Amino acid sequence: MLANSALALAVENDAINSKILLDTSAELKKAINTYDEKQYKQALKLFLQLAENKNIIAQVYLGLIYAEGQGVTQDFVTALKWYRKAADHGNASAQFNLGLMYYKGQGVAQDFSEALVWFQKAADQNHGEAQYNLGVLYDRGEGVLQDSVEASQWYRKAAEKNMAQAQYNLGVLYDRGEGIPQNFGEALKWYRKAADQNHEAAQISLGLMYLKDASALQDSAQAYKWFRKAADQNNVLAQYNLGVMYFRGEGVPQDFVEALKWYGKAAEQNYAAAQNDLGGMHEKGQGVVEDFVAASKWYRIAAEQNNVKAQLNLGVMCAKGKGVPQNFTEALKWFRKAAEQNDRDGQFNVGLTYYKGQGVAQDFAEALVWFQKAADQNNASAQYNLGVMYSQGEGVPQNLVAAYKWYRKAAEQNDASAQYNLGIMYYEGYGVPEDFAEASKWYRKAADQNNASAQYNLGQMYSRGEGVSQNFVEASKWYRKAADQNNASAQYNLGQMYSRGEGVSQNFVEAYKWYRKAAEQNGAQEQYHLGMLYDRGEGVPQDFVEALNWYLKAEKHNYAAAQNNLGVMYDRGKGVTKDFLQASKWYRKAAEQGYASAQFNLGVMYYDGKGVAQDYVEAYKWFRKAADQNHASAQYNLGMLYGRGEGVPRDDSEEMKWIQKAAAAGLEQAKQFMAKEESAEKK
Predict the structure, then answer these.
(1) pLDDT tens across 474-509, in order?
(2) Which of 89, 311, 665, 670 gets the most CB atoms within 10 Å of its CB?
(3) In angstroms, rounded to a whole number, what is the distance separating the alpha carbons of residues 569 and 561?
(4) Which has the closest alpha carbon to 282: 230, 323, 235, 311?
(5) How far apart are CA 119 and CA 75, in angstroms?
């Protein structure tokens, strides 16, 4: 900011005019008094008479009269003429004013270099405002090479004359370490000198310095004091900062109502950041009743001033239909405005809109472009989404190495989803060598941020001893964390741990509780195991009808174990009327999916002719399928078929081979058979 007024200086400098004759001193005083009484036309005549007699003070006043248009038509050319006459005779005020006219291009072509010359002449005579203006020219590099060192020297000269703006500018240089070594203490000193003169910018800078986290001078109460002084002068930035302090509870008790008040004052002065924050408070019901319509109104006012945060917030409101009709096209418009200001969050949201095809045709390639822009600015969500797109080959050829790279970048910014996916890549060896220890490390990072899938996977690793020492207690801990977030797989596994007594005391009631929670999320495995608890009466009264109900739910997912158990229920008449035809139907469904127990059971049905025509060949076929999966009872029955020549030519060696397999697996019937054989051989 350049100093403008020369009136006071012109009056103060009358004593230096050694050429004024004694008999004209009274005439000069009369002219000045007439001027002070605002009788400008009469003053003009008096000053003209004196000026023509080379009275320098009169020449300065004439310059001022023509420059300000006081009693005459404003005439910068004539003003310049009179200032130059006085300036050429060494009058500092005239030199200063002449410099100002060259600076502004008034009555002459704008010329910063010439302005510098005249400011220098006045400054060399200790003219404070000229010294300040010289500092400004050096600071900005106008009419001279930019030189912060020189600027600081001239600001200091003016500041020592108690010029508030110079004191403020000197404080700024100390604050930034420009032209002088950075020194927050000195910055504070000069800001305070200016602030004590009610300089608003200095008061705000003082407030900001007292808020600096890294500053030893941090003092929220002092910050509040200086912001309040500036705010009471209706300074919009101070009003906004007071709102921030009340909102955060810095230097004052947190008070959303007061925050709303100060944001409102700044907003009324069209301060966009305050308007945006007002929108936020209305959206969240802070200090005011929640009001999405009012929130969207304030967001829009700020957004139309190109406030990036408001543009983003308005975009979100449009996308969600909060306070405005849901409109993805409108949301995209505001996201794009933010993105075009190179805002990374705006770029991310534009990418997300194209990715989902909301308000625009789905376009993975375009989504990739915007995610890339945001990711290059270190937006973690965009980096994560790039990882997803490279992983799945969306809008770009599948590239697991590139996916790993972007997941890693996001993960290192503590993005939990990226950390989880990075864990998967290390676990599966996707894009990187398989490494269970690294997998567990990244799962843990995500799990510590309450990512349920990562908590479940970490539980799995402790349960299996993969990348960590096997520890069922730790496994149950992580399963529980995920289960409490309604992760069905974790609920199921926690149920299993209670059922088996692994990492927790065996407790079928707890097992039932967790199986039930998981089953109600429509998972086949979970529904099957809940059916098992009802079937066995573990943790819940035995109830075959309920067991059947849960087996049927699981069967809708084509879950083979449930189909087999349905066969058993019909086979034995548990919860239903015994029905071998239905039993064989369910056994077959499971058997055709390769479920060994069902293959064995279907073999029995064919052997006994229950629900199907008796057929030893079919019985052999199904026993063989189950036996090849190491089903001990099927191996024993297969051996018996070979021994009897039922459904297959008799073959004693095959008989012994299969029964030995069953015995080795611990089947009691097979062990007894082998014992008899050995006894017979001894005889």
Answers:
(1) 999 999 999 999 999 999 999 999 999 999 999 999
(2) 311
(3) 12
(4) 323
(5) 22
8 Å CB contact between 564 and 535: no
Q: Roughly how many angstroms between the first and final C-alpha of the chain, as a whole number?
A: 121
Q: Measure the CA–CA gap between 434 and 427, rounded to whole angstroms.
A: 6
Please give the average per-residue pLDDT across 503-529, as a whole number. Answer: 93
Q: How far apart are CA 242 and CA 249, in angstroms?
A: 10
Two tokens, residue 286: 């802070």
**What is the pLDDT of the chain when averaged over all its residues?**
93
Q: Return the H-helix or E-strand segment holding 437.
A: helix 436-447
588 and 602 in contact (C-beta within 8 Å)? Answer: yes
Q: Looking at residue 217, what is its pLDDT?
A: 72
How far is it, in rounded angstroms, from Cα 373 to Cα 342? 9
> Whose CA is closest to 242, among 258, 219, 257, 218?
258
Q: What is the pLDDT of residue 664?
A: 95
Q: Say how far apart CA 111 and CA 92 lie, in whole Å.
A: 19
Structure tokens at 326: 């849901």
Q: Under the phi-then-psi rule, with left for phi > 0, alpha for psi from -120 to 50, and beta for the rest, what region is 241?
A: alpha
- Rounded Cα distance between 589 and 559, Å, is 9
Other residues' Cβ atoms within 10 Å of the Cβ of residue 437: 11
User: Is residue 2 scored above 80 in pLDDT?
Assistant: no
What is the model's pLDDT at position 46? 95
What dihedral angle (degrees, nearest 10) is formed by the CA atoms of 208, 213, 217, 223?
30
Cα separation, 446 vs 427, in Å, equals 14
Query: CA 592, 493, 427: angle at the middle one, nearest 5?
Result: 85
Q: What percent of the chain has pLDDT over 90?
A: 91
Q: What's the pLDDT at 402? A: 97
Residues 633-655 have pLDDT tens digits of 999 999 999 999 999 999 999 99
| Two tokens, residue 343 | 């805002």
pLDDT at 57 over 50: yes
DSSP state of 464: H
CB proximity list for 389: less than 8 A, separation 6 or greater: 355, 364, 367, 368, 371, 395, 396
SS3 325: coil
Report whether 376 contacts 383 (CB < 8 A): no
* Residues 236 and 269 sit within 8 Å (Cβ to Cβ): yes
What is the rounded CA–CA span in Å between residue 32 and residue 38? 10
> pLDDT grade, residue 3 (50/70/90)?
very low
Q: What is the mean pLDDT of residues 529-554?
A: 94
Q: What is the pLDDT of residue 7?
A: 24
